[in-house]
Design brief:
Layout (H helix, E strand, L loop, with lengths): L5 H7 L1 E7 L6 E7 L15 H11 L5 E9 L1 H15 L13 H4 L4 H8 L13 E5 L10 H9 E3 L3 H4 L4 E6 L2 E13 L12 H4 L3 E7 L2 H7 L16 E4 L5 H15 L2 H8 L14 H14 L7 H8 L11 H6 L2 H17 L3 H7 L3 H12 L4
Parallel strand pairs: 4-6
Antiparallel strand pairs: 1-2, 1-3, 4-9, 5-8, 6-7, 7-8
Helix pairs in contact: 10-12, 10-17, 13-15, 15-16, 15-17
Length: 383
């Protein structure tokens, strides 16, 4: 048999079919189509694995077993059934060259991964502690990829602005609006500088693209970004797979500020020195060199984004005017958003602008600066 009757064609609509070995009954190809598409492969003279398998069966004097898996479908449903069949049988066990249409979007997936895809927090630019480049891997990603395969897909080859990416050390692999993995970038190189098993691009295209070499980021960084949504960071309808994000806050600044403040907090003599500090006394004894190091923290806080321009508005939203001048309870801390925490720090830092030395004398000496920086460091995986 090499074609359906007209009545059968009319009844079938779109359908999904399977080619199997007639003796072993083991499937070797899954396809979808309408009309007499199911028989078209019998006359395929190409050098594909599928054509060779059919020729081998025919050389034995037999024909492949052709079965209809599902029929009466519209085209979209047929694509999904085809993809599900390929996922179930396993692409490596078939002669199909690729997984089914949109298999990575609708195909076989672990329940926890599927749940994360639809129920995840959304990142905004204010959530970024590092400058980052987001790379969409929608075209090449598939469910069940190994860690190495995902890395190969994510690292290149991209049309990027060399002047921008050379200062960026974090890449986020994005699929269907969600961050799949975070990579610490060691170096950006011209595309084709190293082996890349995931894709191939012509020499003319390579000249305008780059690739990165790196490793999976540390846990504290992965915990902040992986599994989170980033759809809102892309312009609606944008086809560009690349998105640059400028850090709202500096993780490095937070780590350094927290380190110095923790040292002061744990040393009674240093806290006592801070409580008697006077900006206007040039002869004040400073056995620990704290004045310079703490004033450097002030500058670092401004550069690190911890004194945002809207700190006053956000601080007022807390509804507790005295909270910067006391240690919030555990319950109160839980009720504060990250932005509100930062506004408290901004309030403390700006106090020094109007009363030189007050940040050291009041907020550092009494452990108030450390109290809020420590909470932020814990939340952001820096403590």
């Amino acid at each position: 048999m090499d074609k359906f009757s007209p009545k059968t064609v009319e009844a079938l609509g779109y359908y999904v079919y399977i080619y199997s070995d007639p003796v072993t009954k083991v499937p070797f190809y899954v396809g979808k189509g309408k009309g007499n598409r199911a028989f078209a492969h019998l006359h395929d003279g190409s050098e594909s694995d599928k054509a060779r398998k059919i020729a081998e069966i025919q050389a034995r004097g037999r024909q492949p077993l052709i079965e209809i898996l599902a029929f009466g479908l519209d085209e979209k449903a047929a694509y999904k059934v085809e993809a599900a069949a390929i996922d179930l049988l396993g692409l490596k066990n078939l002669t199909n060259r690729q997984a089914g249409h949109e298999s990575s979007l609708y195909g076989r997936i672990e329940v926890s991964e599927l749940d994360a895809r639809f129920d995840h927090g959304e990142l905004t630019e204010s959530d970024f502690l590092e400058d980052a480049v987001l790379v969409k891997v929608n075209q090449l990603y598939r469910n069940g990829m190994s860690d190495f395969e995902l890395y190969e897909v994510a690292r290149g080859f991209w049309r990027v602005d060399k002047s921008k990416v050379e200062g960026i050390h974090l890449a986020l692999a994005v699929y269907d609006g969600m961050v799949l993995e975070a990579y610490e970038i060691a170096v950006w190189l011209p595309a084709g500088s190293g082996m890349c098993a995931a894709r191939s691009v012509g020499q003319a295209e390579l000249a305008h693209r780059m690739e990165f070499v790196g490793r999976v980021a540390d846990r504290c960084i992965r915990d902040r970004y992986v599994g989170k949504g980033v759809s809102g960071l892309y312009a609606p309808g944008s086809a560009n797979p690349i998105r640059y994000v400028k850090a709202a806050y500096s993780r490095k600044a937070l780590v350094e500020i927290h380190r110095v403040l923790e040292d002061v907090e744990l040393t009674g003599e240093k806290r006592e020195w801070c409580s008697s500090f006077s900006f206007y006394d040039p002869l004040q004894d400073d056995p620990y060199g704290l004045e310079n190091s703490l004033n450097e923290l002030l500058d670092l806080a401004y550069r690190g984004g911890f004194v945002p321009v809207d700190y006053e508005v956000v601080y007022q939203s807390i509804g507790k005017d005295d909270i910067a001048a006391r240690k919030a309870s555990k319950k109160e801390l839980l009720e504060l958003s990250d932005c509100q925490l930062v506004s408290i720090l901004g309030y403390q830092f700006r106090g020094d602008h109007f009363d030189n030395g007050s940040w050291i004398r009041t907020y550092v000496a009494n452990g108030l600066a450390y109290h809020y920086f420590h909470e932020l460091a814990v939340r952001w995986g820096c403590a």
